Predict the structure of Phosphoesterase.
Amino acid sequence: MTGLVSAERGIGGTALADALPEIVVVVFAAVTHLADPWFLFALLAVGYWFADDRFAGSPRRAGATAIAVVTCAYAAVAVAKAGFAVPRPPGATGPADVPTWLPVLLSGWYEGQVLSDGFGFPSGHATGGAAAYGALALAYDRLWTLRRRAVAAVAVAVAVAASRVVIEVHYAVDVIAGLLLGAAVVAGALALAGDPRLRAGGNAAADAVAAPSADDPTAALDPTLAFVLAAAVSAVAAGIAVAGGHTGEVVEAGIGIATGVGGAVGWRFVDGDEPPVPVRVAVPPLAVTGALWVGAYALADSLVVTLAATTVAVVAVVALPALADGRVGGTGNAV
């Protein structure tokens, strides 16, 4: 795919950022956190563990499927970035123009936000944001109305996409492609998970509006195939990255493989009808899995350690509702 997307991809963030007040750029630098991978997976894990039937008829199935959707989104980004292999805008490589009025403690944070390495097309933040908030809007179908959930999801995803252009780490075409890719992944992964609203020949919007609350579309969700697809696509991305000599993308693809495998394995312990995880039970695993996740990135020079830490962390996150409910060793999805 190399050469299909130009390194100079048109409108970037330089002119826009220069035209905006510094305080606006700083605010957008904070907005971009809403689609940081760590934030999205933490948000999805919280929903998966703690949501009850006020959010979805089958909140564990809804939550696990949302995690699988985002895992698929990052796998798609890994393939595209390794394949197109085009750089970010020049402003992403530094030096950072840090506002002089920012406190010293925030200067380092701001510099970390506006500097970024790796390839630029498509935007991982735009793709992940569209996938995560789109999946949440569809999976948690008892919260608000479909219209309100859709408006909120679009607003957050677009704000994140805009932030990436404003802080000059992506061109506009990168984030537009990311939004479209994220939306496509939501539709494809939910259909793969068995969402009846996205069945062949069906009308997803009409079904979602017309379905009475007693008719629970989330009861049919099974994220296994979506997790497996994410692992397979990530393996393809790893192959492309290895062939191109893109070390950073190999690591990202490896984490995608581990996340997909870990999600599929973890879900085998879960029936899907477990109650919310008690907070007192969730805190220790949250600390352990968080440490494993951070360690996976910190030890990126050792791919084996990174893959092992990521797999264990994801298995623990997905299996926790069954562990908390005392169901591991019982029926689960494995029988």
Q: What stands out?
A: Residues 59-84 form the longest helix (26 residues). The radius of gyration is 20 Å.
